[in-house]
Amino acid sequence: MSTPAPAAARAAAAAPPQRRPRHQSRYLFLLPALVFLALFSLFPLVQLLRMSLSDVTASTLNSSWLFVGLENFQEGLASGQTGDALVRTAVFVLVVTVIGMVGGFAGAVALRTRGRWSNVLLAVMVFAWALPPVVNGSVWKFLLADAGLLNVVARAVGLTDTALPFLYDQHWALGAVAFVNSWAVIPFNALVFRAALLNIEPEVFEAAALDGAGRWQEVRHIMVPSVRPTMLVLLVLTIVYGFRSFDFIYVMTYGGPGTATNTLPFLGYLQAFSQFNFGLGASTSVVAVLVVLVLAVLYARSIRKEEKE
Amino acid sequence: MSHSAGPVNTIVKILLTLMYGVPLLWILLTSFKSSSDVFAADATFVFRPVVTSYVEALDGALVSALQQSVVIAVGTTALTLAIAIPAGYGLARTRGWAVSVGLGLLIVLQMLPQTANVIPLFQIFGSWGLLDSTLGVVIADSALLVPFATILLRPFFRAVPPQLEEAAAIDGASVLRSFFFVVLPVARNGVATTGTLVFLLAWGEFLYAVNFFLSPGTYPLSALLAQQVSAFGINWPGLMALAVLSSIPVLLVYALTYRLLRDGLTVGAVK
Amino acid sequence: MRNSAQNRRTRHAAVVGGAVATALLLAACSGGDPEPGTADGGSTADAAGGDGTVTVWHYFSAENQVQLMDDYAAKFEEAHDGVTVENVYVPYDQMNSKVISAAGQQTGPDVVVFNGAEWSTLALAGALAPMEEPWEGFADADQFPDSVIHGMDDHVYAVQGYVNLLGLWYNADILAEIGVEPPTSIDELEAAMAAAVDAGYQGITLSGLPQSQGEWQAYPWLTSQGFDYSDLDEQALTDGFAMARGWVEDGYLSQEATTWDQTVPFQEFTSGDVAFAANGNWQMGTAEAEADFEYGVVPLPVGESGKVYLGGEGQSIGAFSDDPDLAWQYLTETYYDPEGQLLAVDNVGSIPSRLDTSQEAEVTDNSLLEPFATTLAQNGANYPDPIIPPENVAKLQTAMGQAWSAALGGQRSPEDAAADVIAQIQALIG
What we know:
The complex is a heterotrimer. A two-stranded antiparallel ribbon of chain A has the order 1-2. Chain A is built from 14 helices and two strands, in the order H-H-H-E-E-H-H-H-H-H-H-H-H-H-H-H. Chain A has helices at residues 5-14, 22-26, 31-52, 71-78, 81-111, 116-130, 133-143, 149-156, 170-198, 202-210, 215-243, 247-252, 264-274, 278-308, and strands at residues 54-55, 66-67. Chain A has one domain: MetI-like (MetI-like fold, Orthogonal Bundle), CATH 1.10.3720.10. By secondary structure, chain C is an alpha/beta fold. Chain C has a six-stranded mixed β-sheet with strand order 2-1-3-12-5-4, sandwiched between helices. Chain C is globular and about 60 Å long.
């Protein structure tokens, strides 16, 4: 695993020193990533595609696979599982993205001032972000239980008489897991937004204050525009994060009650590692990849637009 | 920023403090409980603290798991940066279809559910002799994090004024030379920030570790943690004590790079 | 950066070096000490093919169950100089995939201790070594009932050293307070739960997790309403789901059960606010340690048609064990040995699978074990149902677990859940 950088260096050095467009030689910087990802990301993807078109079970995983065409996809669609999971994934991603982005931005605005409280809170948030999902998921499962803190508080303040069914009502459960996922992504988003806010020159605020701008106007006319370029990348990262989320569902609901929190990644996991139908699981994952492809095209197009401006 | 914090700000801060303070407090409290106190409603805050869980957690397995975690996290960070830095720079300085395709590809790779990668990677590693080795897990983790790191790094390199490089070129510096001596130093904060994030994510990654190490004796801390939840019992205090212990290094890294993380994450800022 | 990569590599090399040194040491120990194994069985330890280590994979984490594994290791090591038993913990959810993927790489443990019902998944993946040869040569083989011997096509793949099953745990203090006797029928159970709820307690806890654990817990209640995998009666299944959903609606059972595995509901029970718990004999240690109230067990009151799975862990020899003979010897001296089975009774409260051992005083005199033994005799059912083709066991368990969870949680109506899962089961059973 010698670092591939020297190879690129040699190639660059071998090129005629002058007269070569610099842009072109910079493509060589992409070479190590290209080779590495081709080997360890694209190749597995090809294998996944092959698997989704084959009949692969526990007994045939390690031998040759029987080609079955689109049978796995048909099975998934016919049983309704794939379609249901797609809808749930969409709802899940929507919740994670909205709460994650709004919460992150609100946090950034609130925490952009320096002070002991802000500093400690930021540290606590980053720390929570860095804890393994197994731990965070377990804690939240506990806090959201009938006898958990949230329900105790809700009852104490008279919000409800009976316990709120956070994790075991089909609609609440999906929302609750999505909320905990957004909880886990807010610290990162807040940090990124905050860095963008800190880049605003203080004079801008002073000028606004002279013009008699209120706080909301400040947020709307100064802060939101200034984080717009950041927002795009962050939006994609947050959507990605919600889309591939697996650990929290695994720990908190195991896809239940019933199948209410079976999103695409979890369904793929169940099919492959619990039912040992690797072909079917792979086909579910391929459906996920197709959705991703659409999003990626949208992202790349908006990046190009941004750069043309 | 001469404004005093408004009421809305204060409310948001109180909300966030509760949202993040309570779970962390709960982890800490539980780690000092005896298991019979965990489920007793009257012992939520008032209980007799015990350190049994810590004593039990602190054994030889923990030390070797810690060592393994450090090797994996450091290795992954080094490998990921070695690949993502040139890629991020390359994508920041080239234009046209290659950038779109490259970025789109990165997003696709980044978005793949990790569970989908486990099976094919397992087979590939098996035939290349990378299974059950630390190197295999480092490579898998890097494959997972290179797209993320590249996406994060690209804006930092875009923020480096091209005039600096043009000046260097006029002085006769090669592309490689100006990259190392002009661009990298300017973008060092971005590199350090990205490196920290990669380190933290690699530290917590467990799915690959659990699957690619064939025998649990060689697990890193994250995998050890993931194992505490079982069909026949969750040792809550044990899990939380282990969580606290395994997050001490995270705390250390955070303390060291706190300033960077706090102020340095200017993702996508095209300035 | 190159520097840190270098560091990592040297550190990695050091780790590997250390491991190699340890392995050599171990090899030297076992190699240089050619003690002929003189076990009670009379066979000789053949360490030639292996490293003198028996690696045992298991998924136990409860204290008493781990203790049993340690006791077994100590027992075997004591009888064989130079032999080490290494117990390796693998979480329940990862056990099967880990054993299967290791087998794909021609490696794996010497002995696997796993959910006996899932032997077919492992056997079909080629992860288990056929055991019929030593089994037929095993003098005590006739002590084991057929229901604990798993295999197909004339091969034996797993044998259980003990049986685990569900019973109805009750909180005697609560029952005394509300003035009811431990129930013997569903009607009595429902009346008792109603009284408990009126007195401010919870009725019952059980597992509604949408996976194999849910299926295992649902089976007694579903069969009590006449459901049977070999005669798929949609109405009976609907009744079963409706009964459990009714408990949720009447407040006897928390809908939270859909997030519970089998551990959490018992922890809820031992915390003292619940009248009943449908849970297993393996909880005896937990009950003793955690419950500060009087408790007891009666058979699940599932009537004549009701059936209770005879579960428990199967023990097998890994297909790629480096010393299958030593692994077999380990099994005969621990799980399949009268003394070893009594260790399981003491530590975990398991029901011995050997006919002779199950008659020992330790079993018959234990008032908590007795109801389980009664259930075993009167309502015991093979787990999984033999009508399910081996390759579809895992799929069927998931499907039924999800339906059970969906009905309990109100995601589907009992009718819809039943109709849905019957269609799936029909496809799986054929």
